[in-house]
Amino acid sequence: MEQTSSQDNQQLFPLLKSLQKASKELQKNPIFATNKPLSTIDPFLDLESNANALLRNDPNLFKLSQLLCNLKTLLEKLQKYQGYSLPCILRRQIINYKIYQVAYSIETEIQAYTDRESVQNLVETLEDSDDEDKKVKVLVEFEKRLSQGFDLYFQDLILKAKVFSILEFLLCDSSYSIRIQDEVSLVIASLVRFNKDVFVGLVLMGPTVRALISISSCCSIRVLSSLIKLIRIPLVDELEAYKEIPRIISLLSSQNVSIKVEALDCILGIAYYGRREAIEAILQAGLIEKLVELQRLENQCNGNESGTPNEEGSKSNPEMESDEKDYEENPPFESCVASFAVQLEIGEMLSKTEKKEFKLQILRRVREASVSEAESATIVAEVLWGSSH
Predict the structure, then answer these.
(1) How far apart are CA 15 and CA 43, in angstroms?
(2) Under a CB-based contact definition with an 8 Å cutoff, are residues 352 and 278 in contact?
(3) With contact defined as beta carbons under 8 Å apart, do 240 and 266 qualify?
(4) What pLDDT, on a 0 to 100 scale, did the predictor assign at position 54?
(5) Which of 74, 269, 309, 354 is the most exposed place for a label (fewest CB within 10 A)?
(6) Burial of 43 by CB count in 10 Å (0-12 exposed, 13-18 middle, 19+ buried)?
(7) SS3 letters for 26-67?
(8) For residue range 118-171, what is the model confidence (pLDDT) as tens digits?
(9) Cα dihedral sign for 18, 23, 27, 29?
């Protein structure tokens, strides 16, 4: 029985996708068309005849089966009124309008059924399956569905199934692989984009942000950066309240350049949306000293055409090598101190007086951290010039 059900599903979902596509094509037909659009009607009739047997096996598809029967009846009626007399034209317009309505209902019903099945499959796979590939696959499919835009019915399914709680558990449980946790973090960011009014609160109330920092992968920090841009001031306030800002700055010491780049992006976001307390935490954690060091190393690397081998003689994977080539063309830490100063200058939460105070602190820290007067003069000039433009 289970094997038969599985076979039915393998046939059903491609058929539903084809029906959904055909329904969309029918909706494109002009209501005031003067003849029968065979190119869209005939394929639909073929699909409808194949669908009846499969749809009858699932009570959840009873409404869809009825809609298909209604649409078939309307299409058959349409074929009877292909003349050019006034009664035929009027009847054809009325039938075309009804076809549009039924086709839209079919598309909606198929999407609702597909969403129910996908959310159920997501929850079952994440909770019960030990297959990492299956988990990643359903997460990728779920993220793709979220990217299609807001849907109230789909949101209700997500909330009733407690999907966010499941994702949060996977993100915080260190027994799961970085691969799964990275994909989970991407899905959480997609949920926030899907509806900030609902999912921002869930992110702020739970351990999601702290878990992203603890994972400290390139992907998790990139997601943190995107969440800072999406949630803005409330998230920066949370980072400051839970003393997470020094942990982000410590990532600038990572051996992975990609992680350092994403950490810097987070810091620039905090600088833009942060209140006085957040900026003070940044400076007290030694950010300026670290940025001066990174900028110095960047300049040294740019002057070394032959480059330097990897530490510990380790081999880079292709993705890291690709990133490194991108960074060679666009050095990520070039003028990074000035970039930070500019973000403070144009930021939303500081007063003019506070901005002046912090600029003076930045200049003082640059002079103290520089190894030469030439280096100090260069960075100071970049800070003064950058913040004045």
Answers:
(1) 12
(2) no
(3) no
(4) 74
(5) 309
(6) middle
(7) HHHCCCCCCCCCHHHHHHHHHHHHHHHHHHHCCHHHHHHHHH
(8) 999 999 999 999 999 999 999 999 999 999 999 999 999 999 999 999 999 999
(9) positive
Q: Among 2, 108, 109, which residue's Cα sits nearest to residue 60?
A: 109
**Model confidence, pTM:** 0.87
How many of the other CB atoms lie within 10 Å of CB of 318? 7
In the structure encoding, which two tokens stand for residue 153, read together? 């019915």
The answer on pLDDT for 2 being more than 50 is no
Using the Cα atoms of residue 382, residue 385, residue 388 and residue 389 in order, give the sign of their dihedral.
negative
What SS3 string covers the chain? CHHHHHHHHHHHHHHHHHHHHHHHHHHHCCCCCCCCCHHHHHHHHHHHHHHHHHHHCCHHHHHHHHHHHHHHHHHHHHHHCCCCCHHHHHHHHHHHHHHHHHHHHHHHHHHHHHHHHHHHHHHHHHHHCCCHHHHHHHHHHHHHHHCCCCCHHHHHHHHHCCHHHHHHHHHHCCCCCHHHHHHHHHHHHHHHHHCHHHHHHHHHHCCHHHHHHHHCCHHHHHHHHHHHHHHCHHHHHHHHHCCCHHHHHHHHHCCCHHHHHHHHHHHHHHHHHCCHHHHHHHHHCCHHHHHHHHHHHHHHHHHCCCCCCCHHHCCCCHHHHHHHHHHHHCCCCCCHHHHHHHHHHHCCCCCHHHHHHHHHHHHHHHHHHCCCHHHHHHHHHHHHHHCCC
pLDDT tens string 97-114: 998 999 999 999 999 999
Q: What is the pLDDT of residues 31-52, one digit of tens each?
A: 555 555 555 666 677 777 777 7
CB burial class (10 A; 0-12, 13-18, 19+) of residue 305?
A: exposed
How far does Cα 137 stand from its chain's mean position?
16
> Of 309 and 67, which is predicted with more confidence?
67
